[in-house]
Specification:
heterodimer, A: about 140 residues, mainly beta, Immunoglobulin-like, 6-stranded mixed β-sheet, 3-stranded antiparallel β-sheet, 9 strands, elongated, B: alpha+beta, 2 domains, 9-stranded antiparallel β-sheet, two-stranded parallel sheet, about 25% helix, about 40% strand
């Protein structure tokens, strides 16, 4: 059973929230209450790529307890703190963000599902459509 | 005591020449004492004199400026600057004696720099690269105490990133300011500034044509 992660928008300003829906189908027929899946942890993670050593930080997270049959259908809302860096595509480094849903499975490797997202400066909605730097306006 | 108008702060340059001079004097003394133990006072004085001569040669401008002028100050906003904004700052420098400044110009280089640190084996290396530079030359005015110049900055919305500092990755903004003209010191100073992850109103969607 894979976890489903639906985002309302892949772009979010600092200080706003990534919202969406988190789903997981019930194990077996949904009647049995012996699912190995216990909970789902949803994490907004920032990490760097490039020439420097990687910096990785979990910016926000949210926990969801699963039903006994392992199913879930819930809305989520992850705050992007104003103190975080914005997504950035530089010359020596890139600052990237992803939202990862990890299903905690009993005696098994955790299931994961992740989406790349974009964090933009305050006031950048409608202007920023890719990581900073901003594309130059056509002359 | 430094004072500034409301909403602004007076910023001092990073790296004081006095500390640099003090460090040089201490190191030179240690070297001299070490050499005396092996070669005697007279022979030990030769490499020390060479060190002093080289130091004076390299930092001549800073030493002359230190004797005649105080450290400059920059009047900047007490809050961080927005990306895409064009704020105005005030550069001022006081003289230690009366100087009649007829005309001068103040050159200001605004820099956005990426700095990364990486480890290979047991070696840790830092690399820095300038991703944005903007130079402005502003006319300076002589005052009773020294000189003042109003400088307009151009913080790019298209290049560089807002300031941030992580463990191994950093983006920082700074200004390198120097004044040129008769009777003015030829040294330059660096002032760090903070650029916030906020897009200036002029660049926001729907407002580009206004």
């Amino acid at each position: 059973m894979t976890v489903g992660l639906e985002l309302d928008d892949l772009v979010c300003q600092l200080g706003d929230r990534f919202t969406g829906r988190l789903t997981r189908h019930a194990d077996a027929d949904g009647v049995l209450g012996d699912s190995p899946a216990r909970s789902i942890q949803l994490v907004l993670r920032m990490y760097t790529e490039g020439r420097g050593d990687t910096d990785r930080r979990d910016v926000t997270n949210q926990n969801f307890d699963l039903e006994a049959h392992g199913g879930l259908n819930a809305a989520f809302s992850l705050l992007v703190p104003e103190t975080s860096p914005v997504s950035y595509d530089g010359t020596l480094m890139r600052v990237m963000y992803e939202i990862e849903a990890r299903v905690d499975l009993k005696f098994a490797r955790d299931e994961k599902s992740a989406h790349q997202v974009l964090v933009i400066p305050v006031g950048g909605l409608g202007v920023y459509d890719r990581p900073h730097p901003l594309p130059l306006y056509p002359s | 005591m430094l004072s500034s108008p409301p909403g602004t702060v007076l910023c001092k340059p990073v790296g004081s020449p006095r500390k640099f001079l003090a460090a040089f004097v201490i190191i030179t003394l240690f070297v001299w004492l070490f050499l005396i133990a092996f070669f005697g006072i007279v022979l030990a004085a030769i490499p020390v004199l060479v060190m002093v001569a080289l130091f004076v040669l390299v930092s001549k401008n800073s030493l002359l400026a230190m004797m005649r002028w105080n450290q400059p100050t920059l009047e900047i906003s007490s809050t961080s600057y927005a990306i895409g904004s064009t704020p105005t700052i005030v550069y001022s420098r006081k003289s230690k004696r009366v100087v009649d400044i007829v005309s001068c110009s103040v050159e200001c280089l605004l820099v956005c720099e990426e700095r990364v640190t990486y480890t290979q084996g047991t070696d840790t290396t830092s690399v820095a690269r300038r991703v944005y530079e903007s130079e402005t030359v502003s006319p300076g005015q002589g005052t009773a105490e020294g000189l003042v110049a109003v400088i307009e900055l151009d913080i790019s919305a298209n290049r560089g990133s807002p300031s941030f500092k992580l463990r191994n990755n950093e983006v920082r903004w700074f200004l390198t300011v120097s004044a040129s003209g008769p009777l003015l010191p030829r040294d330059s100073h660096t002032f760090p500034i903070e650029v916030a992850p906020v897009l200036d109103v002029r660049h926001r969607a729907g407002l580009q044509d206004t």
